[in-house]
Amino acid sequence: MTELRSILDEAARHGLISPEAGGRLLPFLSERGVAVVGPQPIMAVEGDAWSDTETPRFVRGFHDVLITIGVVVALGGLWGLAALYAVAPAIIVLSEILVRRQRLALPAVSLTIALFCWTCLLMSHFFPPWTPTSQSFGAEATPFVAGFPIILGAYYVRYRVPLSLALAIMSVLAFVLTLLLRLVQWASGNPAFFLDHPVALALVSLVCALGLFAMAIYFDLGDRLRRTTRSDIAFWLHLGAAPALLYSTVFLLSFGEGVRIFDVGNMSSRTPAVVATVAALMLIGLIIDRRAFVTSGLLSLGVAIFSVFRQGSATVDTYIFTTLIVVGAIVLIIGTGWMPLRRLVLRALPPAIANRLPPG
Q1: What is the dihedral of CA 172, 175, 176, 182, to 10 degrees?
Q2: C-alpha–C-alpha distance, residues 63 and 210, integer Å
Q3: For residues 335 and 349, is the Cβ–Cβ distance under 8 A?
Q4: In angstroms, rounded to a whole number, what is the distance separating the alpha carbons of residues 258 and 177?
């Protein structure tokens, strides 16, 4: 069923059928026993057709953009006038029309984000995720996080939106993180354990970040040529895994000094850790061919570079604009030289590993 849906989505993207026709063909073919028997061989096209394989499918035309604008405006107005419980039925009705029937990509993303925000407000109403005097660093947020996998998972089962599954997986790992924090606090007998041992908090966070990255790699390796929705799920997971890995690693390399990652006043001491971690993430992004994995760390890199220039005697304008120039130059170098750099990296890898990665 999932493979057949992916094939019809691919046909719609190539203009062979309309998205509406694909949505109607799916139950028609399924009821008559049409199915994909096994994995079909897909030959890589020579030349420029495979020069860039990272193509997340957000927009299939300006029609998607127009509909998305209407969804955002309508839900925003409803959110401001009606009660919280009136928003969820509107999201479901719009999802039935725009996602399940018409298979529109960008409206599906916007509706998933709206559902996530609605779930956040709903859960915070019953289970506040933190208190002003809390010293547990998220351990008390277990009931708050517990609702996200259920609601987002049910939404994915119904509408098959890749972002909803990615958010459900992230929320499951966040739930596991809060359980680990609770377990460590219970075993130590100290409610303020992580305040006294911040390195332990960094280690637990890093373990969950690695788990999220492993899930992203699992979906990526299952669709090497990025033809199905597994690639889109992996894209969203990588988008969340990269900052999680960055901040937990920097926090660990800083030996747990300070909880605020973007504390510019103390960032200079963490600048080497930030630069080294971002460089490692860039290398990983090249290997797995994920620009999203690279770009998510640029904000922290910019803050680190900003803090270095801030130590000098230059004016504020000087080190702000210098930081922008440096970060912009890094982005341009990586962006324009992505494929040549990636080919060099792939040649250095063992063939057994390189053959499982997207083609260079």
Answers
A1: 180
A2: 38
A3: no
A4: 20
**Planar angle of CA 104, 49, 278, nearest 5 degrees:** 80
325 burial (CB, 10 Å; 0-12 / 13-18 / 19+) is exposed
Helix (H) or strand (E) holding 39: none
What pLDDT sits at residue 71?
Answer: 95
Compute the distance between CA of residue 165 and CA of residue 330 in angstroms, rounded to an integer: 32
Using the 8-state DSSP alphabet, how is residue 43 labeled? P
pTM: 0.78
Tokens encoding 67: 């509909």
* Cβ atoms within 10 Å of 35's Cβ, excluding its own: 11
* pLDDT averaged per 10 residues in sequence order, the chain, 360 residues: 67 71 72 53 38 61 87 92 87 94 91 95 83 58 91 95 95 91 84 78 89 93 84 90 86 62 52 79 88 74 71 65 81 85 89 84
Instruction: Tell me whether residue 208 is exposed, middle or buried, using C-beta atoms within 10 angstroms of its C-beta: 0 to 12, 13 to 18, 19 or more.
Output: buried
Structure tokens at 304: 């680190």
Residues 6+ apart with CB under 8 A from 44: 50, 225, 359
CA pair distance 169, 234, nearest whole angstrom: 11
